[in-house]
Amino acid sequence: MHTQHAPVRRLAPAVLLLAGLLLASLFAFAAPARAQLVLDFSLNPSSQTGTQGDTLQFFGTITNPASNMDTLFLNGLSSSLVGPGLSVDDSPFFDAGFPRSLAPGASFTGRIFDVLIGANTPNGNYDGSITIQGGTDANAQADLATAAVSVAVVPEPSSLALLLGGGGVPAVPFLALLVRRRRCRRC
After folding, report:
1. C-alpha angle with apex 114: 108 to 115, nearest 5 degrees?
2. What is the pLDDT of residue 146?
3. 35: closest CA among 77, 76, 63, 66?
């Protein structure tokens, strides 16, 4: 029985050596892993205040860090900013002046998107985010960068005056009456 197993024992180290060399060559010639593609993205300012019917313009800076080593295509925007009567207009992102791509180390500063506040939007604070989508080609839709955004909807100044002053002109006689009473106390 020893004679039959002897060739197998001699083959086993050779097969292991061959398998090891094959694995080593695969690792040697394999493409290096690509780093995750990211953009630097900031809004200035990221928080704005408006009244019903306003359109708020959001400006920001987008930078493709030199460490990316690839030109990044800017193919779309997505938004998580929600509220009754609020809508995000991404048309500035697709305007002719907006770059379609950024080379490594390049940046763009300008108008990124608008938020439209509807006529019936309740007063309050609305928070969300804007995400730039794209990648290394014109069809990529990977999430490249996200920035927080906040919109505060406040009453119109004329509405506030009505609430505080009791209606503008009718409040004048009331204030005059208060002033007259104070003068009489000093008499």
Report:
1. 145
2. 97
3. 66
Q: What is the pLDDT of residue 178?
A: 44
Classified by CATH at the fold level, domain 40-160 comes out as Immunoglobulin-like (2.60.40)
pLDDT tens digit string along 119-170?
999 999 999 999 999 999 999 999 999 999 999 999 987 654 555 555 545 5
Beta bridge partners of 58: 113
H runs (alpha helix) in 35-116: 91-94
> Strand 107-117 relative to strand 55-63: parallel, antiparallel, unpaired?
antiparallel
Which candidate, 101, 54, 44, places its Cα nearest to that of 74?
101
Bridge partners (DSSP) of residue 50 are 153
Strands of the sheet with 107-117, listed across from one edge: 40-43, 55-63, 107-117, 86-89
**Dihedral class, residue 85 (left if φ above 0, else alpha if ψ from -120 to 50, else beta):** left
Q: Which two tokens mark 140?
A: 């990529």
DSSP state of 37: P
How far is it, in rounded angstroms, from Cα 128 to Cα 81? 4
What length is written for the chain? Answer: 187
**What CA–CA distance (Å, rounded) separates 48 from 50?**
7
